[in-house]
Each structure stands twice: as C-alpha cells, then as structure tokens.
Amino acid sequence: MVREAVWVPNDRVPLVRTRGELEVVGDPRFESFWSREAEGCYVPDLLWKAAGRPNGTPMEGVRDDNRSCLLPDRRLVIGDREYITAVKGCGAAMDAFENVPLNAVKARAICRDARLAEALATEEGSGLITGERWFGNTPYGGQAPDNAMIGLLASLRADQAQIAGFQVCPVVALVRLPDEYARIASRFFWYRRYEGAYWQEIRLMPSNVRVFFHSPLTFGVDTSRAFTLFGLETFEGAERFLTNLARSSFAALTLYARTLRHDDASGMYRGLDYQDVWLDKDAVVAADGTMHFADLEGIEDAVAAKPAAVKETIERQFHRHVYEASYALEALAVEVERRWRGFHGPSDRRRWILEVLQRACIADPFLSIEPSGNRLVLHIEPAVDAAACRVDIELASEVGS
Predict the structure, then answer these.
(1) pLDDT tens profile 226-255
(2) Are residues 368 and 237 in the same domain?
(3) Residue 244 half-sphere exposure, CB side, CA atoms within 13 Å?
(4) Quick one: which of 148, 232, 243, 132 has its CA closest to 191?
(5) Phi and psi, residue 92, nearest 5°
(6) Both ends of the chain: CA-CA distance in Å?
(7) What is residue 132's predicted lDDT score, i.e. its pLDDT?
(8) Are 249 and 103 in a shared domain?
(9) How confident is the model at residue 11 (pLDDT cuts 50, 70, 90)?
(10) Are residues 44 and 140 in the same domain?
(11) Domain of residue 263, residue span
(12) Is 343 exposed, middle or buried (0-12, 13-18, 19+ CB in 10 A)?
C-alpha cells in the first residue's frame, strides 16, 4: 500500500517553465523523473515579463514558504511512499524589508536598470528572483550553487529517502537559471548585490506541513487541522501516528551518532550534523507521522579527533533539537486528549508519550530506552566505536509525576 502525499492548499504561483539547453546536476537514481516529469527551469512570471517574455510554457504551482513552490501533479513513489515535487528558488513572494507582496510596483522600486523599470511599468504579477545578497551569499528568492550542492551531496547518501533511519526529502536535481534570466535578476536588489550564479533545487516532499514555522499549516500550531488533513479519526490511528513521529524524530535527534564513521588515514571521526537549520521549520511531517528533514543544505559532516569530542557532539545535537521534537509529540497528545478524553491530566498524557516512544525505539539499532530508578534514560550507540563513544542521556526525570 502506497502512503499518499498531502499538501496544504495555498496561494497559486504563476510560473513559466523553460526547457531546452539547461545546465543540470542530478541524482542519477532519479534521472528518469527529473529529465522528464520535472524537466525545466521554473521562472516567476514577473521575471519572465521583465526578460521580454522568452519562449516558455505558462503553468501554476502552489506557494510553499517564501521562495519555494509545490508542483502537486508531478509525483514519484519511493518504496511505499508518494512524494510531490517542490522547487526551491523560484522567486520570493514577499518584499525582503516590508511585510508586503513583492509585486511589480515593489520590483520597480529596487530595479537598478531604468529600461527594465520602464518595461515593468505596465506589468502585473508578484514573486521575483532578485540579486539581493541574503544570509551572506544567497540570492533572495533564488538558490546559490554551493548551498544547492551541499543539499544534493547529503541526499546522495540516502537510500530509499533515509540515511541510517533518518528520513529526508530527496534532492533529485539542481538546475541553473538561464543567463537571460540571471542577468535580469541581478538588477533587482535593495542593498548588496549577489555576484554568483542562480540555481534552483528540485526536491521531493511527502507533505509541506512543517512542525512549527514556515508553512500555511503547521503541526504544532494547527494540530486539529493537521489531524483532519492527515485523516486521523481514531485513538488507535493517532497512536500509530505518534509511533512514527517519535521514531523518526529521535532518528533526527541522533543523526551524528547513526552516521558516525572513522577515517583510518586521518584518524578523525566524521558524522552528519546540523548547521543553521532546525526541526521546527526545516522538517515536514508526512501523513503517517514520519518526520522528514527538508533543508538538506544545512547538513554537513562534523569532525572530531577523540571519542570525548564525539560524545560531546552527540549530546549537543540531541539537546539542541529535543525541544522541537518534544513539542510536536506533546501537541499530538494534547489534541488526542481534546478529542477522545483518554487521559487523566498532563502526567498521564506524558506517560503515554514515553511508553509509545519506548516501543518505537525497540527496533532502532542505535537507540534503547530503559528506566533507571525514577528516571528514563536514552542509550545512544554510535555506528562505530560504540564502546568508547556511547552516550547516556536523561530523557525524563521523575517519570509518572
């Protein structure tokens, strides 16, 4: 049985699909998909108009976050799960410095070319790839090549959309924005002009429901609406959902340990760690509760010389993100209590979460959970040198109170 993808209805995004001689770097495992179903570069129509309306096919996407959109009709099944196509870097919806749409009027205000500004005087539309340097060296509304490549390299490590049990939204291809559009985009900026190439990232997502931020419906805030979207109608269904959410969340919390390896030549340990990314805004929740990490550009190897440094990184990664994971689990339990009145207060609710979490981790080769007095302890055994690098973390204090 295939688990269908879901997405939140949102604003329509007018795009123009450009094909032809494009520069593409893709995952060869998905070549038949990105070279046929998702082939092309997806340009916001305002940029297309500014460029003089070159050849292309008008189409629509669904807005997802500020610079991304979904193409729900382009889907792929991996294993037993369906994914929809998402394009990252196809134009920003909002002005970078005001909480207003980035429309033709706003575009003219940041245009550094009088002829372009004049050409847009009679145009309408919103959403634009700009030449503003955003977060260091990323074009606002687009994607930078180094960030895109980091995401693709992380995705290449995945097998069936997972890395050692850590579920990801696979990056299937990177597409370079044609020069005719890149030259135009570079003439729109507020303060600092971006100097590099412009790329788009084509990735696959089981949903666009994020944990707490950056989606029109988030699991932590709009939990009741998420239950409806996911079709959760019984306590038993919600418990299965919680099991998947708990298992996948704790895989995300222990990514470094489960990807740890030792390089005999250099004598160094390496494992995947999060940079400037977080579970609350950079992960999505699938319809069955399985959390998938979406923004793979923020995942890179962290290096450690000694087991002590490995253990420190494992602990830091866990504690840096455990609140976001716990928030999602608690939000689910609160909604279950509201709907079915199955608990006798917060203590009973937390006890249920911990019991389901223990069962969810039984088959995880890197994790085990056991009571120690009145506490609950999480044992993390890394993929290599487990005896030297094992970490024990207090998961819950005064269990039952």
Answers:
(1) 999 999 999 999 999 999 999 999 999 999
(2) yes
(3) 15
(4) 132
(5) -85, 140
(6) 41
(7) 98
(8) no
(9) very high
(10) yes
(11) 223-396
(12) middle
Instruction: For residues 277 and 274, give the distance between their C-alpha atoms in angstroms, rounded to a whole number.
Output: 6
Residues 389 and 255 in one domain: yes
Q: Are 33 and 107 in contact (CB under 8 A)?
A: no
What six digits make up the tokens of 143?
A: 């994607």
CA distances from 317 to 238, 250, 265, 299 (A): 28, 11, 26, 12
Torsion of CA 135, 136, 142, 148, to 10 degrees: -100
In a domain, 65, yes or no: yes
Together in a domain, 193 and 268: no
User: Residue 271 half-sphere exposure, CB side, CA atoms within 13 Å?
Assistant: 31
> Which tens digits make up the pLDDT trace of 193-208?
999 999 999 999 999 9
d(CA 253, CA 30) in angstroms, rounded, equals 28
CA distances for 224 relative to 71, 80, 166, 216, 337, angstroms: 25, 26, 26, 14, 11
The residue to which tokens 């990514």 are assigned: 255
According to DSSP, the β-strands at 299-304 and 367-372 are unpaired
Beta-carbon count within 10 A of 97 CB:
11
**Which structure tokens are listed for 339?**
């709907």
Give the chain's length. Answer: 401
Number of domains in the chain: 2
Asked if residue 278 and residue 180 are part of one domain, the reply reads no
Beta strands in 65-125 (DSSP E): 68-78, 81-88
**What is the per-residue pLDDT across 87-145, written as a single tens digit (0 to 9) for each?**
999 999 999 999 999 999 999 999 999 999 998 999 988 899 999 999 889 999 999 99
